[in-house]
Amino acid sequence: MTDPNQAERVQDPGYGNCLRCGAPVEAVGIESFRVGGTSGGWKMLFGEFAELGEGMIDFEIFACPNCRKVELRVPVK
Fold first, then answer.
1. How many C-beta atoms lie closer than 10 Å to residue 25's C-beta?
2. 27 burial class (0-12, 13-18, 19+ CB within 10 angstroms)?
3. Can you list the pairs that 31-39 forms with residues at least 24 positions away whose Cβ atoms lie under 8 Å?
4. Alpha carbon of residue 65 to chain centroid
5. What is the mean pLDDT of each successive set of 10 residues along the chain, which is 77 residues long?
6. CA distance 35 to 26
7. What is the pLDDT of residue 5?
8. 35-58: string of b/e by CB count within 10 Å (b at 16+)?
9. From CA 29, how far away is CA 6, in angstroms rounded?
10. 3-state SS class at 10
11. Per-residue model confidence (pLDDT) at position 10
12. Torsion of CA 37, 41, 46, 49, to 10 degrees
């Protein structure tokens, strides 16, 4: 059985407009960012073990050619 609200949850394939100046944004790509883990002295003491709690999260990156601001969005899976 299909969910009747599924179509509403699917994002618009268009990139949309800049939230600041209203110009159309351009897709830059999808990048992975590190989240979690430790820094500073803990990293020095424990080395690679300090990064065990670290994970990666993907974001779609969009840039405005007019005002040069960047927007991050969660990619559609």
1. 22
2. exposed
3. 31/58, 31/59, 31/61, 32/56, 32/57, 32/58, 33/57, 33/58, 33/59
4. 19
5. 43 76 94 76 64 80 95 88
6. 25
7. 42
8. eeeeeeeeeeeeeeebbeeeeeee
9. 25
10. coil
11. 42
12. 10
Residue with tokens 């351009």: 26
Asked whether the beta carbons of 24 and 62 are under 8 A apart, the reply is no
User: Residues 3-13, buried b or exposed e (16+ Cβ, 10 A)?
Assistant: eeeeeeeeeee
Domain boundaries, the chain: 12-73
